[in-house]
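Researcher: Quick one. two chains, 866 residues in total.
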Amino acid sequence: MGMKSYRLHDLSPDRIGELCTRNPIEDLTLLETCRAIFDAVEARGDEAVREYTFHFDGVQTPVLGVAPEEFAEAGMQVSEDSARALRRAEANIRTFHQTQGISREVHEIEPGIRCWRESRPIASVGLYVPGGTAVLPSTVLMLGVPARIAGCSEVTLCVPPRPDGSVAAEVLVAAEIAGISDVLRIGGAQAIAAMCVGTETVSRVDKILGPGSRIVQSAKLLASLRGTAIDMVAGPSEVLVVADETAVPEFVASDLVAQAEHGSDSQAVLVSTSESILTEVGSLLESTTRDLPRRRFAADALEQSFSVLAPSLEDALRFANTYAPEHLILHLQDPQQWVRNVDSAGSVFLGPWSPEVAGDYASGTNHTLPTSGLAKSFSGVSLDSYLKKITFQELSEEGLRALAPTLETLAKLEELEGHRRAVEVRLDRGSME
Amino acid sequence: MGMKSYRLHDLSPDRIGELCTRNPIEDLTLLETCRAIFDAVEARGDEAVREYTFHFDGVQTPVLGVAPEEFAEAGMQVSEDSARALRRAEANIRTFHQTQGISREVHEIEPGIRCWRESRPIASVGLYVPGGTAVLPSTVLMLGVPARIAGCSEVTLCVPPRPDGSVAAEVLVAAEIAGISDVLRIGGAQAIAAMCVGTETVSRVDKILGPGSRIVQSAKLLASLRGTAIDMVAGPSEVLVVADETAVPEFVASDLVAQAEHGSDSQAVLVSTSESILTEVGSLLESTTRDLPRRRFAADALEQSFSVLAPSLEDALRFANTYAPEHLILHLQDPQQWVRNVDSAGSVFLGPWSPEVAGDYASGTNHTLPTSGLAKSFSGVSLDSYLKKITFQELSEEGLRALAPTLETLAKLEELEGHRRAVEVRLDRGSME
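Model:
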């Protein structure tokens, strides 16, 4: 098994571009498939949702909403250890996300011209947490906690039903901890369709957030064409590790393998200035993977991953910025010194004691992050994702009089006479002339 | 002429929903048209761009880029008055947008767990400013000034060529004031395609921002399917005015007409608690519109606009939030008191001396704002639009040890053994055991 390895100096810019290209998102065929699902859900509501659930998931779901008794039962099923871990994760996520608001700070731009911004919650948000065989209570917290801090008044959570039609107890306990009571056993494109158009059981939402398969992401794109906001299009998870000669090979290998076990399409990239680190990590990958329950995924993912020998840390970080990884781990002697070289990444982990798994679960940062190179232009989910920022302005009569010549000149320039007169009528009627 | 008028209490929730619904965005046919354009531009670069420019705009553009001499000539053509107005607008826009950054503030979430966010500019952005017959230097400032404050290293501006192949002098002067030197005479879907895929002359960008026609917005949607970020999909401009009995009818009428003159598809909505204000404003609309150069647009727009009599200001503001206007003007005795009732709007103007035209041009706030009800989930363009916010974390050995039980429990819960081991391998090798 093993990653392909390259020397950075042997790679042409085009080849670097190829190595840094992940799955393209555009797929109008998948959009057409989603359109049929959206149209059916719009026309026939819950009935259509249930049909698609049976068709795609093979599960009968006579009742789509999760009942209070199911929450109560889940609370009894989940161990106290697990519940405690979820609560601590929630507390840390809450602490960090609470720091992200904007304050109402009024700025006097010129005398008599006061401008400011205030944030308002997006009233209703829909969260999607993938499932089926996997159980992802951590994603419930990552999406739900900032929604509550923001003050969203309606929070809807869709989770695919398990074969018996239930939702995993851990997911329900996490939902309860995050303060979400509106949980629906719906997955796939039909879940996104239901939250976009609304049904008898599912509220129509203003924004949809969360990871998921290609069909789920295509459905989110279609929702965005219909005017429902989305967080971003999420692809397979990925990590890029930059390591110097002081890195501990076992730590690096464990980080690459933890990423690789997510799925066959995950990518784990290692960039190092040290040949011996590359060799040692490479030789550790097999033993680190061997007895994992998900070794098949990990081995497949590592097959399509790669390592790069870089002549300097500047070059290594430059490559990392071109790749723009979802997760960037800096196994460096003095990682703080290199923070300023990081231009594009979803979330960054500094030094030997900051494994990605800390941010995946419980350090407080969000794990819903831009993939596939979108970190060049997108931020991960944060409190911002649940807020609008509205600008306000109040001019005094003096403020408007002072600004009037500028406004009138620009209105003339753009040949918008009605704009100019909206100023003039005020000057004519004002108390100062 | 005139707006339809309604009494809020006579309107059913469904009817209110209809009144608040604007143009739907989804149009897969337009997307297919754009796809052909994108594919041609991807295959044949500048040549295809020039062909589409000739096909759609009837203009020959042998040279796509604007040369330094054209800037110099523009500088001589534009009056000192106009240049001064543009510079003052730029100064105010800069002042307000400079207040919008995030500071690097490190938070200790638990002892030994430090998390923070830092912002980084999106490296390359593409700005689209509509034109052809209209001349919109103000939009150049609104899109360009925050790009420069953010520190974007490449800023590309596309403007449709005029019939003689030139770009308006005012637009070039505004570009120069905003610090943009890379201006291209390209409009329509071919401009968006060129910035999305890149050509010999046009740099490929990470994000595209700006208003434009339906075809331009569809092209932006397609660009977003191809992984290029966009600001949002912009529809026709709109204003909603809330007026109480203290409002000055002439001011209100001038604000409605200023909005209506943008285009036949603009919408101007008046909501008032005062029947006499509704009557007086209604009777002023004709005279306010009569001798405007763009009276045809204004009259058409007002035909499809409407007014609503609301029983209370609470109700009026509730209706405004349901409509979620791009611009909200509060012609109220004590507008500050009603700010907290505003949930959904792009930008808000308080009191008689704050006409929308102040924010359109020069008070400092941005005029690129969410339309068509998107203000429920989108913010206007701000410094944020040009930045990514990256999360960072650094744990100490003690920090990781203290968090380890939580991390290991959650990894077990999600059956990600490789995640658990990334913690374990560190505890085993740490210096504290």
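Chain B touches chain A through 136 residues (CB under 8 Å).
Researcher: Thanks, that's what I needed.
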